[in-house]
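Write out the bound-state structure for 6-diazenyl-5-OXO-L-norleucine.
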Amino acid sequence: MRKIFILVLTSILIFGCKTSQKTTVKQSDGLFSLFVEDPNSKPFFSDKKGVFSDNGMVASAHPDASKIGVEIMKSGGNAVDAAVATHFALAVAFPFAGNLGGGGFAVIRDKKGNAYTLDFREKAPLKAHRDMYLDAQGNVIQGLSLLGHLASGVPGSVDGMVELHKKFGKLSWEKVMQPSIELAEKGVILTEREAFGLNGLKKTLLQVNGENTPYFIRKDGKIWAKGDTLIQSDLGKTLRLIQQKGRAGFYEGTVADQLVAEMQQGKGIISYEDLKLYKSAWREPLIDTYRGHKIITMPPTSSGGVALIQLMKFVEPYPLRKWGWNSDSTVQVMIEAERRVYADRAKWLGDIDFVKVPIKELTNKDYLSKRWSDFNFAKATDSKAVAGGTVPGYESNETTHYSVVDSEGNAVSITTTLNGAYGSKVVVDGAGFLMNNEMDDFSIKAGVPNMFGLIGNKANEIQPQKRMLSSMTPTIVEKDGKLFLVVGTPGGSTIITSVYQTILNVIDHGMTMQQAVNALKFHHQWLPDKTVFETNAFSEKTIKALQSRSYNIEQQKGTLGRMDCIMVHPNGKLEGASDPRADNTSVGW
Ligand code: DON
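---
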């Protein structure tokens, strides 16, 4: 399990494995002052600068997608129009995680301050059942929930985009869809990272889709290189059908025929009925406070929002700013919070349409202070001694993020995924899009870790039509009643802790948005009982202090987080902050 965890953390972050460049913090780097306890520590992955603008901002994983989002705003669209256009552009330009065949979550704050959340997470097909990934002896069949046709949940992204646009869109659907169609037909110019990703995918792609698959393979058989053009004409046709027919262009007609045929020939189980039944769900936003800031985040089916609120509440009583960024005391209370929160996640969190999740109780002050009562500064708590908390009255039972703000102050925070890089690697024949491998986010067997090392139980077991638990944490923060931050990232189980650290970097440590994104990160998830950290995230002093208190800490080769965030500064300027760890780009106007 340990090996799988390390492998996965490394491989999901494959796109960010560059040697870090560091800068020493200067007080003048930001609008605020930053207190770093150890003057020799180098808290940033790079000195990338934020993008500033007055009228609107899109921060996403791909420059073409961010540009398209901004063009939509320039032609009269609002933040939701831009977000929808960005989503479809990412499905073309960023097949690693952008998608038609996946799902996700949207958190929206309109210009008046009203909050909304949309759950367009995939669902288990009707023919799914609890033990579908186990052999006759009850053992997990390795890889079945990750690779190939059986790994996919029923996609939610297209329905999600249609819903968002129906409720908030200002421009026509046709206009919002048009740029991604052109991008698919004219082609995307590959970056070095994308060429590398597609070359790495080739072997599995052929294995899953057959030797003759035309998708994501160069016609001349050569490997992809930076600057090559990736034309996706079948994907263009699919996007045209969605443009013409909306939801029906994907869940019915030609594309549904292609998807069901693909499933049938690959022994998958998604049916016409599944496609017809898929519906995204508006959920009550999860709203709480942290040091006087309003936190608007995603309720279940994502565990992200509940976990984020719990994490914040645990450390709110402590003077993190006085202690300093990544000082031993700051890191220690954050790790201990993470340990308890991920144990709760494993026990309590699941699809609220199927299981009762005690959201209020889990984020309640008294409950959290009871959970904290065994914390001791002298020594690490042992994860073996930490189980999910007891809530009275209850029985136990490769992703991408984009942030958008428009000129009126409407804000959208969306995280969407195929799960692993390029999902299940199944490309729907004729339709040209990749399917997700989201079924692995279910607890496929109680207590057995998924690809992110996460453990689950009954609350997250497979049932037909149920949504698998997620860690995605799209979040919006208000300060003094006004829009302040739009935040999110991919990273599997590390999403929650990256969002947590990024927000704390701003609120507690006074960083600008880009500094908070650039800042080096660490992660703990209860089990396995260890803290991983990016190179240089911890000073020697912090490492020694933590080790002397029995913390198991491990520097990792890969990186943590690929954030795309926006901050509204006191003078009204928007700061777009896209992660220097990959091709992420903010575009403003
Ligand atoms: O929903 C989830 O929590 C996962 N499927 C997210 C996967 C992910 O972030 C992979 N990207 N690095």
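---
The CA atoms of residues 497 and 523 lie 6 Å apart.
The pocket of 6-diazenyl-5-OXO-L-norleucine is lined by residues 12, 398-399, 417, 419, 438, 441, 470-472, 490-492, 495 (CB under 6 Å).
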